[in-house]
Amino acid sequence: MMDFKFSLAQLTVLNTSPVEIATIAAKCGYDYVSFRQIYMNLPGEPNYDLQKNKELMKETKAIFQETGLQLLDVELARIYDGVDILQYENAMVTARELGGQHILCSIWTDDKAYYTEEFAKLCDLAKQYHLTVELEYVPIAGVKNLAGAVDVLNSVQRSNAGLMVDMHHFQRAGDHIDALKKIPKDWFHFAHLCDAVAETPASEEELVRIMREERDYVGEGGIDIQGILNAMPSVPYSIELPNTKQVSRFGYGIHAKRCLETAKAYCEAHVVGRSAHDEYR
């Protein structure tokens, strides 16, 4: 049986501080945690920049040391028109200070020449901190499907650039598993795990609502998660599963635990994964 590794992503327990999400993750039995360390200026959004809050950083480090929990990645380095890539450096410093390995990126402009150049800059900056930059395509963003993300990675040719596949986004983008199998295995470092209804909503508003508020526990929706994961190498799975109804019913702690239990059970029953010894080029 494969030794699956799981991370608790911030969006699953959105309004938690680094100490709170780390405490929940450790109690539930996660291997990793994924922090949102880049302030996005959303209404009511708290700013938990650990480079500016040294006491919170100290408390977070203590939880890691006491529990063995590790940091998988920090988010979200968005590329948009007029972005200053240097604004993401604090998050990179935090990632390295806490032993993280990756910074998550998505692209929110349609200017291909611009976003390719800025993504390359982001990779170069992250390399100074020994981090990979994981490009996540989002069906409502500038780079919205697998082909678009692959084009960016092929264009920049950076050794620390990776591809981060989200189960929800893969389904909504209408991507195909055969295309996923053709991608170099060393582009994969982790994936976002969740389930959702199979049918793509007719309106973007409903698509966004499901994406942010009503993803399903793994195995309880209509996405071919088995096919997707078995087309990829074995990597840690960051559970990004926001569901406001479940959180209202159970609270963050029980919701996070149910996320992990259902994901583990599903993976153990259905996922083999591509071997690190197999050649996929």
TrEMBL record:
Gene3D superfamilies reported in the protein's UniProt record: Divalent-metal-dependent TIM barrel enzymes
Xylose isomerase-like TIM barrel domain span: 24-242
Pfam families assigned to the protein according to its UniProt record, in alphabetical order: AP_endonuc_2
InterPro entries linked to this entry: IolE/XylAMocC-like (IPR050312), Xyl_isomerase-like_sf (IPR036237), Xyl_isomerase-like_TIM-brl (IPR013022)
Name of the molecule in the record: TIM barrel protein
Originating species: Peptoniphilus equinus
